[in-house]
Amino acid sequence: MDKKMLLRDEFLARLGITESELKEWQDLKLLMPDGITSENVSFFTKRSIEKAQKIKELVNIGYGFREIQRIVKKVGLPVRENSEEKSDKVNKYLTVGLLAERVGVSPRTIKHWEDKGIIESDMRSEGGFRLYSEIYTYLCKLIRDLQLFGYSLEEIKETSDLFRDFLVMEKNLERYPIEENEKKFDVMLKKIEKFYEKIDLFKNGIERWDELLTKKRKEILSLKQQNKKRKKSKGKKK
User: Fold this and answer.
1) Domain 4-74, CATH
2) How far apart are CA 26 and CA 73, in angstroms?
3) Which of 37, 81, 138, 208 is the most exposed place for a label (fewest CB within 10 A)?
4) In b/e form, how buried is each residue of 4-25, taking b as 16+ CB within 10 angstroms?
């Protein structure tokens, strides 16, 4: 999907059409949004902008919407050949604010992670409005976990780069030469082993603290009970 997109108001302003015109296009299924933000604001990518411009050209030379609808059904509208085929499904995307809320961090933290190259928004509007797919909720929670484990942002960036490499290779193993793939796989496996080592340390540490806190909680409750008995005994002496 195109990285750049226009929110509904930006799209209307770019094309010079009204809200009612766009609604009519959508009712006739001439043009549909590429997705919806978590605030239910529709947006359009470059491919949809090109398609909308063709529709507007046909309207300007005198074609009615029903005629355009027939043209679209029979031959489609010309757009760039390298554009991906668009699905009828309208995907929902998260704003920075909602993503931050789901992860339990501030919007500023999400933007900082993106500025550091740890994550990358799926799309961004001309006004800098960022959108993220649902998977980022899980990914950002993993990043937060790594910070709690004591990893620096530089170390987390290395991990995210490896993860991106893995996704590329999973999709197309021919992307890199065989030798380069092998090197990348070895680095990934070593990284996983280091994670396991650190996880074991944390597990042992958690067990120690769990035992200690459980013991101290019982001792504190016992002392608290003894303290209450002291108050009662003092009251009787008076």
Assistant:
1) 1.10.1660.10
2) 14
3) 81
4) ebbbbebbbeebebeeebbeeb
User: In this predicted structure, which of 35-44, 111-120, 170-179, 187-196 has the lowest mean pLDDT?
Assistant: 35-44
Bridging pattern class, strands 130-132 and 123-125: antiparallel
If one counts every other C-beta atom within 10 angstroms of the C-beta of residue 81, the result is 5
Q: 161: helix, coil or strand?
A: helix
Q: How far apart are CA 42 and CA 36, in angstroms?
A: 4
pTM reported for the whole predicted model: 0.64
Distant-in-sequence, close-in-space partners of 110: CB < 8 Å, separation ≥ 6: 96, 99, 100, 103, 119, 140
pLDDT by residue (tens digit) across 45-72?
Answer: 888 888 888 888 888 888 787 778 777 7
